[in-house]
Design brief:
This protein has about 250 residues and is of the alpha+beta class. It contains five helices and ten strands. The protein has one domain: PPM-type phosphatase domain (Phosphatase 2c, domain 1, 4-Layer Sandwich), CATH 3.60.40. The strands form two sheets. A five-stranded antiparallel beta sheet has the order 1-10-9-6-7, covered by helices on one side. The termini are close together.
Length: about 250
């Protein structure tokens, strides 16, 4: 299968952009991280996460016999294990830099790995992965947030935008609660994947996302999605990475 990908980011109506992303079709790796802790912390944390993911994948491509940071899990696919190792290594990297003015920094992350054995997604926090398949949009991640936990417990909640709990996440890299959720995925020709921060999916919403994701190749579409989210009033940093799978 052929993979086309592209990414775009916008500061939104914030003073600084604390999102970071990478789109590495050569590695089969796609990542979006949303930093927290203010300009000094959030920007450093998200970039540290993205660089850690890319760095480990590059090292394993250069040397397939290289030692992995953590023990391999035989029950996991290669892609699941890779993302689990990347996430745990990023947790260590962010924790090591939480000193001085950076002592409160942290970051969400959502990552997609596409490889010979299939695909996997890993996430921590409320950055998301969506998949458009045959015209149907599906969220492949479930937010690590107070709002989502209350919904799972059967509590009727307002929308994310209207709830006082809407932006309170329960897991983030750099904090004591950073265990990722890792999931194996099946991939089909024609799939379109969207990795994004909350600055994108909140203003656009699922119906608009479903309509837009079928409108063309990732190149250009990622920028249009980000710009539309901004025009609709998006205040947060806005980031999108699009991945299209073709025969």
């Amino acid at each position: 299968m052929r993979i086309d990908s592209a990414g775009w980011t916008h500061v939104g109506r914030r003073a600084h952009n604390e999102d970071a992303w990478t789109s590495r079709a050569d590695l089969g790796l796609f990542v979006v991280a949303d930093g927290m802790g203010g300009y000094a912390g959030g920007e450093v944390a998200s970039r540290c996460v993205v660089d850690t993911f890319s760095g480990l994948c590059e090292r394993l491509v250069r040397d397939p016999e290289a030692t992995w940071p953590h023990c391999r899990h035989p029950q996991l696919s290669h892609e699941e294990d890779l993302l689990l190792n990347c996430t745990r290594l990023a947790q260590r990297a962010v924790r090591a830099r939480r000193q001085g003015p950076l002592h409160r920094m942290g970051s969400t992350v959502v990552a997609l790995a596409l490889g010979a054995q299939g695909a996997a997604v890993a996430h921590v926090g409320d950055s998301r992965l969506y998949r458009l398949r045959a015209g149907c949009l599906e969220s492949l991640t479930r937010d690590h947030s107070i709002l989502e936990e209350m919904r799972q417990a059967g509590v009727k909640m307002a929308s994310r935008a209207d709830s006082p709990y809407g932006h309170l996440i329960t897991r983030a890299l750099g904090t004591d609660s950073a265990e990722p959720t890792v999931r194996r995925l099946d991939v089909q020709a024609g799939d379109v994947y969207l990795l994004c921060s909350d600055g994108l999916y909140e203003p656009l919403g699922p119906e608009r996302l479903a309509a837009r994701l079928g409108e063309g190749a990732p190149e250009g579409l990622a920028e249009r999605l980000v710009e539309e989210a901004y025009e609709l009033g998006g205040r947060d940093n806005i980031t999108a990475v699009l991945v299209s799978v073709r025969e």
